[in-house]
């Protein structure tokens, strides 16, 4: 008998080692690592999502006839060792993990039986293929990768040409929030059951440090429920996907976002089946091209690009910190202090309630302020990883170290995503009743984003004046007659952010 060891983010019968496993010849092992659970403060919905999804997957496999060893252990390593000692399998088969450390762990296992690492097909482009595509180039663009993926996978293609005559409909998808109306479908919810209650009780009994509102069924934790979320997205949400995706409005946390990323990131859904469903809806004329293209771009473009660069640049990538940022994540982000900044309050409240913010809230509100403030990029990564429902190291490193904190000096994004209050005001309805004034950079009511934005350009002037994409803003900062006051106010803003009094 062989053992197939399934990690917590590989919960799918159709991938890797499990794809060819049979109940008559294979036993399945899943390990809940208490060491991992106790290693950081998790959002309770995230910790629950991971454990409940594993337990339901184990139950599905048992229903399919497998003997499943779902065990709790101090670490993954000790869990597999205990399993092997107890069950004495001929071989342990494991699908390539999604993390660099996970792969090193598998390669260094010292077990009395053979360990076979099976190639992962959880992504549409394996990281070896990505590395081949990247080749010897010094720099490469997501857009080129995306078109290469479109061509080879055949999504939204009309022969050799892109459907609709264009590769990119982004210019139709960056609209500010609509002034009125709420065209967005309400997300589905599931009923919590005995498994959910057991997971929550176990988290309490294990003394896992958690934060945030308890689960209310928003996040699916089974294949069946995740498939239902996919159908709901394609039928009811996708036709609206696109135009307002970058907007931030108090009255809707989800807009027309798919909120399917957590399921794809743990295997409950596979990217191919998600894209196939979108392609089918487009082929039947049920969704416009800008919606279908905008969504397919996220999955086969951005998501797979981030996956590819993670593997290409690890392990050095996680230690990048070119701006030498060394502050802690502000207590206003972690719920340890309240804040009068409306935008931060709305994002952190949303995070507390749902373990979720959409990409612009992550990038242009939380990430932006963290970069302007000078938070250690690894600290930002760890905080987001533990708190966002769809967190994973491969997602967080390129998105946080690269995109959001510009800690890699431009490998991922050619310029830092830095913005003052004006951008947030344009894309949201947060600023209108905020106690701070987005236009002011000095004074007690100056918007902290605006103050820190100008101060950021000033502090990093030498580096950024060599960057043609941001040099214009650096020159504008140089022309400010009140820069001395801006610097003074920035010192005060930073101290108050650190102290949780802003
Ligand atoms: Fe945020 Fe500044 Fe707008 Fe207030 S004024 S919501 S702090 S960007």
- Report the span from N to C terminus: 60 Å
CA gyration radius, whole angstroms: 23 Å
Order of helices and strands: EEHEHEHEHEHHEEHEHHHHHHHHHHHHHH
Query: Major β-sheet, in short?
Result: 5 strands, parallel
Distinct bound molecules = iron/sulfur cluster
The computed structural class is: alpha/beta
Question: How many β-strand runs?
Answer: 9
Mean pLDDT: 94
Helix content estimate: 40-55%
Quickly count the helices: 21
What amount of the residues lies in strands? 5-15%
Strand sequence of the main sheet, in spatial order?
4-2-1-5-6
Uncertain residue segments: none
The general outline is globular
What this model shows, in words?
Strands 4-2-1-5-6 form a 5-stranded parallel sheet, with helices on both faces. Strands 3-9 form a two-stranded parallel sheet. The protein has helices spanning 34-37, 44-63, 76-87, 100-107, 127-134, 142-153, 194-205, 223-237, 261-266, 271-283, 289-313, 331-334, 342-354, 359-373, 377-387, 393-404, 421-427, 448-459, 461-464, 471-478, 483-499, and strands at 2-5, 26-33, 42-43, 67-73, 91-95, 114-118, 157-158, 161-162, 210-211. Helix 8 (223-237) runs parallel beside helix 10. The longest helix has 25 residues, at 289-313. It is α/β, with parallel strands linked by helices. The mean pLDDT is 94. The site of iron/sulfur cluster has 14 residues, from helix 13, helix 17 and helix 18.
Summary?
47% of the residues lie in helices and 7% in strands.
């Amino acid at each position: 008998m062989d053992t197939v060891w399934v990690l917590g983010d590989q919960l799918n019968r159709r991938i890797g080692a499990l794809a060819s496993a049979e109940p008559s010849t294979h036993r399945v092992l899943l390990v809940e690592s208490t060491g991992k659970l106790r290693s950081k403060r998790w959002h309770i919905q995230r910790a629950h999502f991971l454990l409940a999804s594993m337990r339901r997957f184990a139950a599905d496999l048992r229903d399919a006839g497998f003997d499943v060893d779902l065990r709790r252990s101090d670490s993954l390593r000790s869990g597999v060792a205990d399993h092997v000692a107890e069950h004495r399998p001929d071989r342990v088969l494991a699908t390539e993990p999604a993390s660099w450390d996970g792969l090193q762990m598998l390669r260094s296992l010292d077990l009395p039986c053979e360990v076979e690492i099976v190639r992962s097909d959880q992504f549409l482009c394996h990281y070896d293929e990505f590395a081949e595509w990247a080749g010897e180039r010094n720099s490469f663009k997501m857009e080129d990768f995306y078109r290469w993926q479109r061509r080879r996978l055949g999504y939204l293609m009309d022969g050799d040409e892109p459907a609709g005559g264009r590769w990119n409909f982004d210019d139709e998808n960056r609209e500010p929030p609509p002034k009125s109306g709420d065209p967005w479908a309400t997300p589905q919810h599931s009923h919590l059951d005995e498994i959910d209650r057991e997971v929550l009780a176990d988290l309490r009994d294990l003394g896992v440090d958690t934060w945030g509102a308890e689960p209310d069924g928003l996040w699916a934790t089974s294949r069946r429920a995740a498939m239902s979320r996919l159908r709901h997205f394609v039928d009811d949400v996708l036709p609206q996907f696109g135009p307002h995706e970058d907007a931030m409005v108090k009255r809707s946390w989800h807009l027309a976002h798919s909120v399917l990323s957590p399921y794809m990131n743990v295997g409950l859904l596979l990217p191919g089946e998600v894209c196939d469903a979108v392609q089918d809806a487009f082929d039947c004329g049920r969704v416009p091209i800008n919606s279908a293209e905008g969504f397919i771009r996220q999955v086969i473009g951005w998501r797979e690009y981030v996956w590819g660069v993670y593997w290409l640049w690890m392990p050095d990538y996680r230690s990048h910190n070119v701006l030498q940022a060394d502050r802690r994540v502000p207590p206003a982000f972690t719920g340890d202090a309240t804040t009068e900044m409306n935008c931060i309050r709305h994002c952190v409240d949303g995070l507390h309630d749902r373990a979720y913010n959409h990409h612009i809230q992550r990038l242009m509100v939380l990430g932006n302020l963290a970069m302007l403030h000078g938070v250690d990029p690894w600290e930002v990564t760890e905080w987001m990883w533990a708190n966002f429902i769809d967190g994973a190291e491969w997602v967080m490193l390129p998105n946080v170290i690269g995109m959001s904190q510009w800690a890699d000096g431009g490998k991922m994004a050619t310029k830092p995503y830095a913005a003052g209050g004006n951008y947030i005001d344009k894309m949201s309805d947060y600023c209108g009743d905020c106690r701070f004034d987005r236009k002011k950079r000095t004074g007690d009511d100056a918007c902290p984003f605006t103050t820190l934005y100008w101060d950021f350009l000033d502090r990093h002037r030498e580096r950024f004046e060599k960057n043609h994409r941001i040099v214009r803003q650096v020159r504008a900062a140089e022309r400010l007659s009140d820069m001395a006051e801006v610097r003074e106010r920035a010192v005060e803003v930073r101290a108050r952010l650190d102290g949780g009094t802003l």
